[in-house]
Amino acid sequence: MDHQHYKTLMIDRLAELGVRVKHIDAELGIPKPADLEEQAIDIEDDEVLEHLGVAAQKEAFLLQQALKRIENGTYGICLECDEAISKERLDAVPYAPLCKSCARGE
Ligand SMILES: [Zn+2]
To answer: Which of 46, 86, 89, 102 is least crowded, fewest Cβ atoms below 10 Å from its Cβ?
Structure first.
């Protein structure tokens, strides 16, 4: 199965999140994708950053994990039950780590 479409979607989304991700990564010392290195950061208000940051960081983390799964060939396979995640679900949530039934069970 060709995941290029999802890969493009997720890389675009990561770029959108780039500013916040880069800043938070720097704080937490998490290695970041090279293509985010060039993103300028100019956020001075740490409280605002923190507020915006949590959701963005979580999404960026999931996106990065999903991109890793494309790299190693496990993208689209549920982490819980090893079943294929439906195309409908990946279209809705490209970085979904779990199939619909496992996600529901959380
Ligand atoms: Zn599952």
So the answer is: 46
Q: What is the distance in A from the centroid of ligand 1 to the CA of 102?
A: 4
The answer to the question of residue 96 being in a domain is no
pLDDT of residue 39 exceeding 50: no
CA of 73 to the centre of ligand 1 (A): 17
Ligand 1 centre to CA of 95 (Å) is 14
Residue 53 has pLDDT above 80, yes or no: no
Q: Do you know the residue count of the chain? A: 106
How many A from CA of 81 to the centre of ligand 1?
Answer: 4
Query: For the chain, how big is the Rg over CA atoms in Å?
Result: 15
**Do 57 and 24 touch, CB atoms closer than 8 A?**
yes
- Number of domains into which the chain is organized: 1
57 within some domain: yes
- Please report whether residue 47 resides in a domain: yes
